[in-house]
Amino acid sequence: MGVVLVYATSTDGVADDVTLQALTLARGLAGGDSVHAVLMGDEAAASSLGHHGAATVHVAVHEALASGAPDARARIVGDLAGRLGAAFVVGPGTEEGNTVLARVAADAELPFAANCLRVTPGSPVTVLRQRWGGSLQEEAVIRADRVILSVAPHSVPAEATGGAAGVEPFTPDLGATDLVVRVARRVPAAAAGVSLADAKVVVSGGRGVGSTAGFGPIEELAALLGAAVGCSRAVTISGWRSHTAQVGQTGTRIAPDLYIAAGISGATQHMAGCKASKKILAINKDPEAPIMTMADYAVIGDLHQVVPAISAEIRRVRGV
Amino acid sequence: MRVLVCIKRVPAVAGRITLTPDERAIDMKYLGFAIGPHEECAVEQAVRLIEEHGGESVVLILGPAEALEQLRDALALGINRAIHLVTDGEEWDAGSTAAAIADAIRDDEAANGHFDIVLLGNEAADSGGYQVGVRIGRSLGRPAIAGIKGLAVAGGVASAEQEVAGGRDVYDLPLPAIIAVLEGINLPRFPSVPGRLRAKSKPVAASNPARGEQGLDLVRLVVPQGVSKQAVVLGSGADAAPAIVEMLAGLGVL
Asked: Structure pTM?
């Protein structure tokens, strides 16, 4: 138990959900001590942090914070943690949260536990954290006076307290070395179809698709459903499809209403990326494939026959 | 140009993970080992940088004697030589791993000059710590960046790209720099037979660093209680189409 500092990320004046989840976990670590949060500019987001239990929101104001600058962010968080005598520094387990907190830990020569699911205060502090993208968990102890950790996204539901935070803007003291790593420019992406990460329906093909051309029927079904096309790692390492379509531990994590997995066996690497789907339909020749114990619906059969038949049936039902 | 790529030996897990009786490791009875996916791409990137700019590529691993297998895999793809920090097989936390790698870099650089770029995978496939690159950067006083899916080097500057909503953020890092890459930055080549043969005679320098104190110390591993479902079978083959479409309509996605 002790003072807690939360590294808060926000988008256009609203704290990110993953930050509110981290804040919810962090509240439980403070005991009777106070919960602080630090925002990188974007003062408008302070109210949502107060609403989720931050007593004080520190807002760092500096022009460099608009352009990434992970070392500058880490300097700000580390200095503030020192000033507050924080026992815990907590943030979201996103790419950004993890790289900033790793830097805070490296600067202070302290351990850093990424993607925690549960934290038990004590001496030493015990954490349960994700390994293998969540397919495995680790119970570990952290030996440090200041415990630095991130919270695995979507593992702790955000809970509001209805409070209001005191807001304290300040100008951070940054040196030249803090500003070496920063975004020099942004290259806009060409407008693509439905984004994999945000799609309501995703139709994916695996090794069973067999070739680049084999994705034709999968694309056709996806177009009929307004869905994004995904694939497994077996597909991308075979060069059949670009990595941007890969669903999995080292690809995109998705959470659609429906995930259609055709010719995908259900390897750990893949399921780490699609297990947040509300419903999964597996199409597979092998009734013993591991995915059958993780799917809601299954069709036993060759995807090369089943997928075109679904498209034909949709057209028939729609009368087109 | 000199490029170092750091890799890790990890279990090639497939379907279901089972643990050893002491619950401190994955039961490897039916599994092999591999280089982690992000790191396979880091190796490919190192080979490409040297193909483009000339110079020397070196691969480094911290792991048991058997990790020589993963070093040979990287050498077979075109890396010039290897550094093996040999452990007794026990897990090292990120802090002690980074410290040993930074020491090995200092030793190699004292003899051969600095590495322009140190490449790593974004996070280890198994332990997922997200920090070794940053710690090496801090120890050596060099800029470090993570989450990289595009890399170009020109005029002593590495332009490293992160994928973000709506495009790509480009960081221009002065060399020498530490760069942690994500799978998808490239499509790794497969080793050729002559490559495999050449790998056998490439130099591997082995040493035995001390493990040091563990700040984050593994107590035990836990296989999460998965939601074990039994899928509702909608049918077999093309005949299942009407039942599937009915299900789609029921979910409101039609």
From this structure: 0.93
